[in-house]
UniProtKB/TrEMBL annotation:
Name by which UniProt lists this protein: Calcineurin-like phosphoesterase domain-containing protein
One GO CC term on file: cytoplasm
Family annotation (PANTHER family): BLL5683 PROTEIN (PTHR42850:SF2), METALLOPHOSPHOESTERASE (PTHR42850)
Source organism phylogeny: Bacteria, Pseudomonadati, Acidobacteriota, Holophagae, Thermotomaculales
Residue span, Calcineurin-like phosphoesterase domain: 1-204
Length: 245
C-alpha cells in the first residue's frame, strides 16, 4: 500500500492544487490527512470543497479546523491566527462549516502499524518539537508509525527502544524504515511550511517497501499572497509564505 500523507493545508488552494497535480504522476492508494484544512490563508471554501471531492481519504481534524468551525473559541491563538479564524468562519458556506464540525478527533488507527493524529495521539493540540517530546509519545504508544502534523516541520523521530533520533526531511530524501524501531513522522505543511523552504511539503509512505519518500512542490506563492492581501487578512500571513517561516 502506498499512502500520500498530507497536513496543514491552511486554506491555501494554490499549494493544495499544485500538490494534488504533482502526485497525479505518482502512484498511491490512499490519502492520510493530519488536520488543519483551514485557517491563515484566504481560500477556505475552495480547499474544503476540493478535499471533500477526494476519494480514499482517512483524516483527523486540526486545531484550526476546530476554531474556524466554532467548536472552540481560539483564546490560545495569537492575534493574527485568531483574526484569520474569525474571517474564515464568516466566509465558510454552511455545508463546509458543517463538514469541519464533523471532522473526527484524532488519533485514528489506520491499521495495526499506522496511527494518525494532528498534534500527537495523546493530545491533538500538543506540539512535538524535540526528541524529548517524541520520547514521551513513544512511551505511551506502540504503533510502528505515528503520522502527526501541527508543527509544519517535516521531520522523522526514530526510536530504538531507548533513544530517540530526530532528523529533518529534505526534498527527494528516501528513508528506509527499520522494523526493529518505531517512528513518529511529520510530512510538513502543504500550505504554510515553516522550515525556511517555502515549497509545499508532503510524503509518500510505501508500506510494502517500508520506505518514506519526501517531496517539496513549487506553487504560485504570489497568487496565494494576493488572495490574502485582497481579503485584508493580516499581511504577515502573506509575507511569511515566501520565506517558509
Amino acid at each position: 500500500m502506498r499512502y500520500l500523507v498530507l497536513s496543514d493545508i491552511h486554506s491555501n488552494i494554490d499549494a493544495f492544487n499544485s500538490v494534488l497535480s504533482f502526485f497525479k504522476r505518482k502512484k498511491y492508494n490512499k490519502i492520510l490527512f493530519l488536520g488543519d484544512l483551514v485557517g491563515y490563508a484566504a481560500a477556505p471554501n475552495q480547499v474544503v470543497e476540493k478535499f471533500r471531492s477526494l476519494k480514499n481519504v482517512l483524516y483527523v481534524r486540526g486545531n484550526h479546523d476546530k476554531v474556524c468551525s466554532g467548536i472552540e473559541k481560539g483564546n490560545h491563538f495569537n492575534d493574527k491566527a485568531k483574526a484569520a479564524a474569525l474571517w474564515t468562519m464568516k466566509k465558510l458556506t454552511r455545508n463546509n462549516l458543517n463538514f469541519l464540525k464533523k471532522m473526527p478527533q484524532g488519533p485514528l488507527e489506520v491499521n495495526n502499524d499506522i496511527l494518525i493524529a494532528h498534534g500527537s495521539p495523546i493530545n491533538e493540540d500538543f506540539y512535538i518539537f524535540s526528541d524529548f517530546d517524541a520520547y514521551q509519545i513513544f512511551m505511551q504508544t506502540n504503533h510502528f508509525i505515528t503520522f502527526i502534523g501541527h508543527t509544519h516541520l517535516p521531520i522523522v523521530y526514530e526510536f530504538d527502544g531507548e533513544d530517540v533520533n530526530g532528523f529533518f526531511l529534505r526534498d527527494r530524501m528516501v528513508i528506509k524504515l527499520d522494523r526493529k524501531k518505531r517512528y513518529i513522522i511529520n510530512p510538513g505543511s502543504v500550505g504554510q511550511p515553516r522550515d525556511r523552504d517555502p515549497r509545499a511539503s508532503a510524503i509518500i509512505y510505501d508500506s510494502k517497501l517500508d520506505k518514506i519518500y519526501a517531496y517539496r512542490i513549487n506553487y504560485n506563492i504570489n497568487k496565494a499572497f494576493d488572495r490574502i492581501v485582497k481579503e485584508r487578512l493580516p499581511i504577515h500571513l502573506a509575507i511569511r509564505l515566501g520565506y517558509g517561516v
